[in-house]
Write the structure tokens for this entry.
Amino acid sequence: MRTTTRVPWLLHAACCLGIAFGIAACSTSEPRAAQAPEQLRADVLETLPHDPTAFTQGFEIAHGILYESTGIVGESDVRATDPATGEILASEELPPPLFGEGLTVIDDRLWQLTWKSEIAIERDRHTLEEIRRVGYEGEGWGLCYQDERDRLVMSDGSDTLTFRDPDTFAPLDEVAVHAAGEPVTQLNELECVDDRVYANVWKSDVIVRIDPGTGEVTAEIDASGLLEPDQEDDADVLNGIAAIPGTDQYLLTGKLWPSTFRVRFVQAGDGV
């Protein structure tokens, strides 16, 4: 069920009924205008290696390991890598016609999405071997796990985030994402951090920070200019954000990017 706000006339009627009985004062002022998102940028702290043949779709650090899901039919896989060196520690291929998409880790399990096959694959985190497959409706794009709420958050390329049961993958609820009152679509790879959700916006260098309770975009992060100009011709779009546990830092990468960037999000006007 899509998250909504209460109908204004019901609230007004309740207030005025209170006045009639001398209980409360009622304000008839207009609702507060939507606030513009905070403007941040990605400040690069370190450049690390990344497989330039990886069509990155999912990106997450758990237990000191960087897990990555890649796309393209016939080339898709899921891999566990050393976040510092990019060395592949384990990997499992996805057979055609599966196109790998977002992933997330929950304890000793890992969920991986597929793009149009409507299949989520549960895997053993250590071996990456498949445990089972679960169906869902629609496309699969990004996925992350909110530990404090014990729920999955999934994107499908629209302005909707769907919350799912982490054991059954059944849908629980959904919320529409918006910025300053306008819908934000093309939500792609996701990262859950405390009570916030970060989302890459497909075909852009923008990452949005979302309040999953309301769907409001609370910050827009400019991640442009990470690659050198001579690297951009062979690279595809920005897509991959992984929070580094215990820090305020993140790893960012993209599809077919030769590098991963360790960054901190700072105010857009700070620094050079």
